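Narrative of accomplishments. A recurring question from our advisory board has been how the design workflow behaves on a single, concrete structure rather than in aggregate. To address it, we present the structure tokens for one chain from the evaluation set, followed by the sequence designed for it. No filtering or post-editing was applied between the two.
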């Protein structure tokens, strides 16, 4: 068995449902957790790269999370976020067009950050039949411990590999599922790396 546990340090999960930006993503999709592992890896080391490739070659994992009845969906609050900076000028070439760099002149776009309050509950991805080599387990544990957030950057977590995972609440099925979750498949790591380097549709 391989299990990865995490807990939300602030007691809340901040992540947007990919199908509705006004709703939180709950339960957290396994692919979102995999994205956090790839971000923690950040291109360092072939052993880590191979371990991530091995991980996304596995069958979809079981998921252990608090049930909908045990979590509290936070109120949806609209905030206004400054747009990205325009390209700055070369040294000594400031002009009127660069006034947009000033905080008071930057356009603000409405955004919402859907939140689920989960308290101190532990979450987990579980592969009951997986038997990773000892070095792979150690490497994945190191990557887990380097993960800082799952979802939005304010959704801070502590994550680790464990032998004692919570009981599964969601299991993959062959028939039409009640809940649709995104899961990584073979090659997902390469897609994420390419998307980060070049931008584009890989993030979706």
């Amino acid at each position: 068995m391989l299990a990865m546990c995490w807990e939300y340090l602030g007691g809340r999960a901040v992540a947007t449902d990919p199908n509705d930006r006004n709703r939180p993503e709950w339960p957290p999709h396994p692919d979102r957790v995999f994205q956090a592992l790839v971000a923690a890896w950040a291109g360092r080391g072939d052993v880590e790269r191979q371990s991530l490739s091995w991980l996304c070659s596995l069958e979809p994992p079981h998921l252990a999370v608090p049930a909908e009845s045990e979590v509290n969906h936070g109120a949806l609050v609209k905030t206004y976020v400054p747009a990205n900076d325009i390209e700055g000028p070369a040294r000594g070439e400031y002009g009127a067009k660069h006034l947009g760099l000033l905080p008071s002149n930057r356009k603000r776009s409405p955004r919402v950050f859907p939140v689920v309050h989960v308290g101190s509950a532990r979450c987990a991805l579980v592969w009951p039949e997986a038997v990773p080599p000892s070095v792979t387990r150690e490497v994945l544990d190191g990557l887990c411990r380097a993960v800082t957030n799952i979802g939005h950057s304010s959704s801070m977590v502590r994550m680790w590999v464990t032998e004692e995972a919570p009981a599964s609440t969601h299991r993959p099925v062959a028939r039409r599922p009640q809940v649709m979750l995104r899961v990584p498949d073979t090659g997902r790591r390469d897609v994420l790396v390419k998307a980060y380097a070049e931008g584009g549709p890989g993030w979706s």
